[in-house]
UniProtKB/TrEMBL annotation:
Lineage per the UniProt record: Bacteria, Bacillati, Actinomycetota, Actinomycetes, Propionibacteriales
Tree of life domain: Bacteria
Entries under Pfam families matching the protein: Acetyltransf_3
The protein's name in its UniProt record: GNAT family N-acetyltransferase
InterPro entries attached to this UniProt entry: Acyl_CoA_acyltransferase, GNAT_dom, N-acetyltransferase
Gene3D superfamilies for the chain: 3.40.630.30
N-acetyltransferase domain sequence ranges: 9-176
Length: 180
């Protein structure tokens, strides 16, 4: 398993001790504003199990993000393979979800840059995608800060027609863009 280190963060495999904070994060209405619903503790734990298994299987995933100086778990940052079908899948996406107290500190950008370096370095990927709801401007700003460019709007296939969060934006960065 690969762990990534930045100046301030450790992106690592999940620990059982992360589960309580992650469940609180997934139950926070502010954090989950751009998702269809908050998660129960059981749903959050199931997600940790899936994220852990994906990292074990692929050597990468949505890593647990820890502040190096304090050891505080703050959410996840990393790479994933979406399990839905769309015009742009299969692909590798980059994403993040952090506790509200960690917002505005540049952690998502810092961890995402390390994830991209891993994607275009050791993993040898040619491109990485990211997507979010059209209303999630903070995540779109992170995408732009890490060099991604807007591609198109699309309807997320897992959300019913007319769902207020169905419309998403798709961003992309290629190896050449990252190198430039």
């Amino acid at each position: 398993m690969t762990a990534l280190t930045t100046d301030r963060l450790l992106l690592r495999q999940w620990k059982d001790s992360d589960r309580e904070t992650y469940a609180a994060l997934n139950a926070d209405p502010a954090v989950m504003e751009h998702f269809p619903n908050a998660l129960t503790r059981a749903e959050s734990d199931t997600m940790v199990d899936r994220l852990t298994a994906a990292i074990d299987e692929r050597g990468f995933g949505f890593w647990a993000a820890e502040v190096r100086e304090t050891g505080q778990f703050i959410g996840f940052i990393g790479l994933s393979v979406p399990s839905f079908e769309a015009s742009f899948t299969p692909c590798v996406e980059i994403g993040w979800r952090l506790v509200k107290d960690a917002w505005g500190n540049g952690y998502a950008t810092e961890g995402a840059r390390a994830s991209l370096a891993h994607a275009f370095g050791p993993l040898g990927l040619d491109e990485v995608l990211s997507f979010t709801t059209t209303t999630n401007k903070p995540s779109q700003r992170v995408m732009e800060r890490i060099g991604m460019t807007y591609v198109e709007d699309f309807d997320h296939p897992r959300l019913a027609a007319g769902h207020p969060l169905q419309r998403h934006v798709l961003y992309r960065i290629t190896r050449a863009q990252w190198a430039g």
